Amino acid sequence: MIPVSWQLPLWNVWFWASVALLLVVLEILIPGEFFLWFGVAALLTALVSLLTPVWQYQVGAFAVFSLLSIAVAVHRLRRRPARSANPLLNRRLQALIGAVGEVKKPIPLHGRGAVYVDGSLWLATARESIPAGTPVRVRRVRNLVLEVEPLESEK
Fold it and tell me: What is the SS3 assignment for 155?
C-alpha cells in the first residue's frame, strides 16, 4: 500500500499536467499564442508540486510562472513582431494614400469637395481649387478627409 503522503503529491502532479495539456490543446484549437504560455506555467507548476503538496504554494507558483511566461512572450513578440503579407489590411485610410480617384464635387481653395476613390465617396481638400471630373491622387489623410492633388501636378 502506498502511503498517503506519497499519493497527494502525485495527484497534484497529474492535476497540473492535465491543466497544461488542456491549455496546449486549447492553443492548438484556438491559435494565437495565448494559452500556450499558461500551459508552460502549468507544466512548471507540476514540477513544483513534486516538492510541496500545499495547494496554496502551487497556486502561487502558477501565478508567478504565468507572469514570467507572459513576460517572455511579450519580449519575444517585441523582438520579432509578426509580419503580414498585407500590412495595410485593416488600415483602409492609410491604404488610400497614393490611390487615384476622380473629383465628383468641385474642391474650392480653402474648402472641401468630394472625390470618388476606391469605390467610395470621400470628403477632400486640396492646395488649389480643382474642378469636378479631374483625376486626382491622394496625398494624405487627416480626420477622414483626403488631401488630394491633380494628376497633372506630378509632371
Answer: coil
Domain interval for residue 43: 4-79
Q: What would the DSSP string read from start to end of 25-86?
A: HHHHHS-SSSHHHHHHHHHHHHHHHTT---HHHHHHHHHHHHHHHHHHHHHHHHHSPPP-S-
Kindly report the length of the chain. Answer: 155
- pTM to 2 decimal places: 0.52
Domain end call among 79, 113, 129: 79
Question: Is 112's pLDDT higher than 70?
Answer: yes
What is the four-CA torsion angle of 130, 125, 102, 152, rounded to 10 degrees? 50
Residue with the larger pLDDT of the pair 124 and 79: 124
Across residues 54-71, what is the average pLDDT?
Answer: 93
- Please tell me the distance from the alpha carbon of residue 133 to that of residue 146, in angstroms, as a whole number: 16
For the chain, what is the mean pLDDT? 87
